[in-house]
Write a structure and sequence with these properties.
CATH architecture of the largest domain: Alpha-Beta Barrel
CATH superfamily of the largest domain: Metal-dependent hydrolases
Radius of gyration: 21 Å
Helix content: 25-40%
Shape: globular
Number of helices: 13
Number of strands: 18
Strand content: 15-25%
CATH class of the largest domain: Alpha Beta
CATH topology of the largest domain: TIM Barrel
């Protein structure tokens, strides 16, 4: 029997409306008890958590691990190490690898790589369609049986509405979540950044916000037609969250996520052609940013996801028009989210909902609560720790972050998965 005691921290469990100073006892990989501080509980190891937050393990519903096919950008092991360093106990891995995760064998291989890494958990997201071509559905029952928790063609939108209607129906039938990358490729084709003042100044082809919002409207219509649940990846525009809010008001089972870069940066961050500010969907306006923040606060958006998208210098240190879309974010998401609590936009309980409870519910996976008997996935956070993340200090293999050198406050000190400490700040192991 192995045991761990996290003593004297501020425990937040929004699933049970807990926000109190408590001791948390872990035995044999499970939450054993929550007790008033100073009790008689003993354990093989004690983590002193006075002045720290004790949260249900953070879950990132949108991560790119690049393996197989692009291991020079990121491997499953390096990506899960970065996740653990960022306080994430689990991530949902997108299927746009090479080959795509579109069959049971690739799902099993991803799970095996994740187990071997011994860091954060990995939850496989399989492709909606074979080869992510948007034409023929993958074998949903086989994917579910192999361990997939969701389907997505992330990176591409399923243009054919009849195909996407079948995606919604078949995924619901076997219990797979549907994660939509809403982007009309005819509107976004050839674009590099948000279509507006900055794209005009830089002489770059733009992507209008309607490339996202029109696709969101189409997908919402099919969710209404089928009555099936649907989750939207990386929403970035005011029009999209307004459409999502209206659909929820009609009773549709639809949810959405956004990413920290859309909450803290606008298209002005592109500056003089900075490729670390190039992602898809592109950074929008201050009006978009305000709408996204409001949607987090009022519950329209259900999750904060990183959309961690590693690229090497081969893809980023080139002419801006040729640079790949995407930024990394696993190690900066938590401190940025904590800024939203200090500004008064979010409570700490709401942050735990957005980064743990709701992702678990959307994906249908264990986690999101510290109830006794649950897997002991726990994130311990020092909310007052000042730091600056540097490329040299990152666990990711890639360096494409727009937040290098930015003063940050609040960091995971311990990331615990199944009762095992997989990351400890300052440890040399």
């Amino acid at each position: 029997m192995t045991s761990l005691l996290i003593r004297g921290g501020r425990v937040l469990d929004p699933a049970r409306n807990i926000d109190d100073r408590l001791d948390l006892l872990v035995r044999d990989g499970l939450i054993a008890a929550l007790e008033n501080p100073g009790g008689q509980a003993e354990a093989d190891r004690v983590i002193e958590a006075e002045g720290r937050l004790v949260l249900p393990g953070l879950i990132d519903p949108h991560v790119h691990l690049r393996e197989p096919g692009h291991e020079y950008k990121e491997t499953v092991a390096s990506g899960l190490a970065a996740a653990a360093a960022g306080g994430f106990t689990a991530v949902a891995a997108m299927p746009n690898t090479s080959p795509a995760v579109d069959n049971a064998e690739e799902v099993a291989a991803l799970l095996a790589r994740g187990a071997a890494a011994g860091a954060a958990r990995v939850w496989p997201v399989a492709a909606m369609t074979k080869g992510r071509r948007g034409e023929e559905l993958t074998e949903y029952y086989d994917l579910k049986s192999a361990g997939a928790v969701a389907v997505s063609d992330d990176g591409d939108w399923v243009k054919n509405p009849k195909v996407f209607r079948r995606v919604l129906d078949y995924a619901a039938a076997v219990g797979l979540a549907v994660l939509s990358h809403a982007e009309d490729p005819e509107l976004s084709k050839g674009g590099a950044i948000y279509e507006g003042r900055v794209s005009t100044r830089l002489g770059l082809p733009g992507i209008p916000p309607q490339a996202e919002s029109l696709a969101v409207h189409r997908d919402l219509s099919l969710a209404e037609l089928t009555g099936k649940p649907l989750h939207f990846c990386h929403l970035s525009t005011k029009g999209s969250v307004e459409a999502l809010r209206a659909a929820q008001g009609k009773g549709l089972r639809v949810t959405g996520e956004t990413a920290p870069h859309y909450l803290f940066l606008t298209h002005e961050a592109v500056g003089d052609y900075d490729p670390n500010a190039k992602m898809k969907p592109p950074l929008g306006t201050a009006e978009d940013q305000a709408a996204l923040r409001a949607a987090l606060a009022d519950g329209t958006l259900s999750a904060i996801a990183t959309d961690h998208a590693p690229h090497s210098v081969l893809e980023k240190e080139v002419e801006f028009i040729d640079a790949s879309f995407g930024v990394i974010g696993l190690e900066t998401a938590l401190p940025l989210a904590l800024e939203l609590t200090r500004s008064g936009l979010l409570t700490l309980s709401r942050l735990a909902e957005l980064m743990s409870l709701n992702p678990a519910r959307i994906l249908g996976v264990p986690g999101g609560s510290l109830a006794p008997g649950r897997p002991a996935d726990v994130t311990v956070v020092d909310p007052d720790l000042d730091f600056t993340l540097t490329p040299e200090g990152s666990k990711s293999l890639s360096r494409n972050s727009p937040f290098w050198g930015r003063p940050l406050k609040g960091r995971a000190t311990h990331t615990i998965v199944g009762g095992r400490v997989v990351f400890e700040l300052g440890s040399t192991e």
